[in-house]
Structures are given as structure tokens and as C-alpha cells.
């Protein structure tokens, strides 16, 4: 599966983008040229050699704040996706094989999460557990988990009643064997797609929560927080939101590209697609070796 | 394994006695199998025919433990009573591979994400007795047994034809050396050329001491493979006897109707002869 995904150019592009995001997540605080919390007299300064992205309304270096905010921003979205995955996907698979009581209860809990208004629930959670990053992540993770539950349950249901699973049961397979051998490979692609989508969505949602003052509190730098403060000074610095937005955009785009690649590479259609691409590449190589080209040359055009 | 009876005789591959199966609960309860009894000797090929909904597959599923029979029913496989087994006992019984099942549609009965070699190896992997190399050898032997190129083991089901897929399904069923092979409409999803090849393969299996329970609504297919036939009508066994007798001199009115309705009634005996003639014409000796 991973090899098949990596054969797709879109997946390789997504991984390069994610490698860049991972690099600034790990080394961002070390690469920051200034202290991200240090105020200076140069409020709202334009980009210059000293401050590549300019300064914000308190005179803090924007580049330093973006680099220093990377670990918290990325870690929070990974945490959201992780919570949603564990809380959603595992019960989703178990609901098919566990008792009817578990199935009924889990379905009702998921229905409840779907019905809850997002912002009200996030505010209530932070009011109940305190206003911190982890509390906000738990709230968002729980609210995103129904997506994983539905996807995992739906994929498992379609497999659980298939004849090849029945054949495995007749050969003496346990539920664990069936899940590992037959179910997991069918459930993994849609879950991976949901995970990649959630990582992208999570970053935007976390940013929007920070925008509302829920989760990470100022002056701790995060991409969402920087974006929120930049939006207050649009008349002075109309370009300022572009910097954090670009990073959020790159991250979301990379995860979505990866999700699309996983979808394209999954199952029989994925094998066919990759096989067709490999055949086309081989044909092009053979033609090139024999002096022909698949694309018309300038002379013929 | 109690394969030898108290009198020292080899136990039947399958002995079904007073089998009753009910579907539904309370007022909606309906008896779908009613007092069905029959035996299959080791190496014997028995056909079960009847129209759709007559209960053919339900009998098979009862033997396999996928359907729980009503109290008082008895299903003995190679001398061992299998009704009333706990889930753990049933799993252990299934891992012995004494009974195997071939589904109607090989496209649906093979996991599309596993190579066909992996699917064939699965029963042995579950038994956990043989090592990887031994399992690979067993898979290769079984591919040869069903006249498939062992090199196909690395392919996915979608890369094989319908007939090849059904051969793979049969190889998966045979790899545990079963005493009883249940085939549920094994050729109905195939085109006529592949149907003939699979029927020939099954006829060849009869020499390997595997008892066959061949379920079909197609009397021609049953006649080509089995020596004894059971006729099922609305969950009841209405007639049983030698296949030739069922085909040529049916006694029960339903059997007469079934035989009379078959568009290829003569396929069992005459078509096989005709088939051989055609093959001789196609590949003349010398």
C-alpha cells in the first residue's frame, strides 16, 4: 500500500511539503532569529533585511513568531487527529463485531456528538476542564471523531458480511485474524483519507479556536493566533495575514494531496492506476530509446 | 478424531439425522428444513437438487455450523457430532479442515486485496502447523492439483479469469485435505466452457477419497459429477437415489417436474459422451 502510494507523483509532492512542515516544526524555534515574545519599538514595521516578514503590533518579529509557533500549531492538529482516530475508528470497527448493546450505545453517543453545536461544545469543554491547549484539542477531537466512527464502521460492515470473510471463518479464523487479514486493509484507506483530511481541517479549526481565544493563550505564538492578530491591523499591513496563511495552506494542501493519493492507490483500482502509469512510463522509455517521443516535437508542432 | 465407528467401520464423511432448522422467532418462526436425514460415505459424491428456496444451502450451512439447527438434530462429520459445539470448539473443529466449502461466486469469495496464493494458504496459516516454506510448497502442489500454473499464486483475483478464480477457490478448499467438500452452485457463475472444465476437475477429485456434497439447481451439472442425488422440496427430502435413476426414472411428482423442466436434461450422461467426442475431434489421437 505505502509503495503504491509513493508511486504517485501527487503523494511525493505532498511528502516533500510535509517534510518542509516537519522541518520547521522541529527546528523552527531554533531557527527563529529573534525572541518571539520580545517587544520592540518598531511596531508594524514593513518587511526588511532585519525583519523578513516585518513586525506585529507589539514590535515582535513575525518570522520568529511563525517559526516558534510551528511546533504548537502542528502538534495540536496532530493531537486532534489522534484523539479523533482513537475515539472514532476503534469503536467504529468494534461496533460491527462486539455485542449489540455496545453497537447501540456507540451509535447513540456518535449521534449525540454530531448533534452538538461545535463552538458551544468547545466553549463548554474549556469552561469545564479549563482553558488550555489539551482541553481544546480534546473538544475538537471528540467532535471530529464521528467522522472516523462512521467511516470505519461503514468499511467494516461492507467487509464483515463478505464471502471471503465467511471463508476465513470456515477455516477457523478468529475475529482478530479477520480484522488483521481482511478488514484492516479495506478500512485503512478510508481511515487514512479521513485522517489526512482531519489533519488539514484540524489546523484550520485550531486556528479558528485560537482566533476566538480558546485554547492557547497570548502571547504564546501559534499560526492561528498570529493570523488573528494580523487581521486586526489590515489597514496598516494588508499583506501580513499572508505569511501564517501560506503555512496553514501548505500544510492543509499537503494533507489533502496525500489523502487523494491514498484514495487513488487503494484497492484494485489503485493497483490498476499505478500499473497503467508504470506501463505508460515504460512505453515512453522504450520510445525514447528508439528515438521517438510521445509528445510532438517543435518541428512537428 | 473418531473416524472409526465402534464396529470398526470407517465413519461416514457426513451423517445428518433428523435435521430441523427454523428461521425467525415467535409467531414469525418458520421451519425451513424439516426432518432431513442422509449419509455420505467417504469418497462418495452426492448431489442435492431443488429449486431456489428449497433449503439446499441451509443444509450446507447447518453442516458448516453457520446456521444453528433446532434441538434434536444431529450432524456428524467424520464421526464427530458438530451440533451444540461452543464457539471455541467449533473454531477448533473448523481448523482441522475436515469440511471445506466452495462458494458459488469466486469473485466474491476471494479477497481482492490478497494474492490468490495467500488466499489458498490461509487455512494452513490458521492451522499454524506448517512453516512458511512448507505452506508455499503446499500451495504450489494444490495449484498443480487444480491444473493452475503455480506462477499465478502471486496474482490478485482480478487478474484471473472466472474459471481460474473458481479453481483457486477449490484449491483453497482442498489444501487441508478435507474429508468432505461442500460445493454450493460451484459452476452457476461460470460460462459454459469454464463450467465444463470445473465439472471435469470435480469428477477427477472423486478418485481422491474426498466426499462431495454438490448443491445445485442444475440437474445436468449434478448428474455429471455425482453418483447419488437427494431431491429437496420446501425443506423436505422428497426423493433420494442413484443419480442415473433420479434423472431417468424419477418417482416423486416434484422430481418429475424438476427433471421435466431441465432444459439440458440429458447433459448428465449424453452430453458427457458428446463432450468427449468433441474433444476427440478437437485433439485427434496420434
Could you outline the blueprint of secondary structure elements for this entry?
The complex is a heterodimer of chains A (301) and B (286).
Chain A: H1 2-6, H2 9-31, H3 62-97, H4 100-115, H5 118-129, H6 133-160, H7 163-170, H8 175-211, H9 223-231, H10 242-265, H11 267-289
Chain B: E1 14-23, E2 30-40, E3 45-49, H1 56-64, E4 74-77, E5 80-81, H2 87-95, E6 99-102, H3 106-109, H4 116-127, H5 132-145, H6 162-174, E7 180-184, H7 192-205, E8 211-216, H8 219-225, E9 228-233, E10 236-242, H9 243-248, H10 253-261, H11 270-282
Parallel strand pairs in B: 3-8, 3-9, 6-7, 7-8
Antiparallel strand pairs in B: 1-2, 1-4, 4-5, 9-10
Detailed description of the structure:
Chain A contains eleven helices and no strands. By secondary structure, chain A is mostly helical. The model of chain A has no long low-confidence stretch (mean pLDDT 85). Chain B is α/β, with parallel strands linked by helices and 286 residues long. Chain B has helices at residues 56-64, 87-95, 106-109, 116-127, 132-145, 162-174, 192-205, 219-225, 243-248, 253-261, 270-282, and strands at 14-23, 30-40, 45-49, 74-77, 80-81, 99-102, 180-184, 211-216, 228-233, 236-242. The longest helix of chain B is centred in the middle third of the chain and has 14 residues, at 132-145. The radius of gyration of chain B is 19 Å and the shape is globular. Chain B starts with 13 loop residues before the first strand and ends with a helix. The A-B interface holds A 162-164, 166-174, 177, 181-182, 185-186, 267-268, 271 and B 64, 66, 91-95, 97, 99-101, 103, 105, 108-114, 119, 122-123, 126-127, 156, 158, 172, 176.
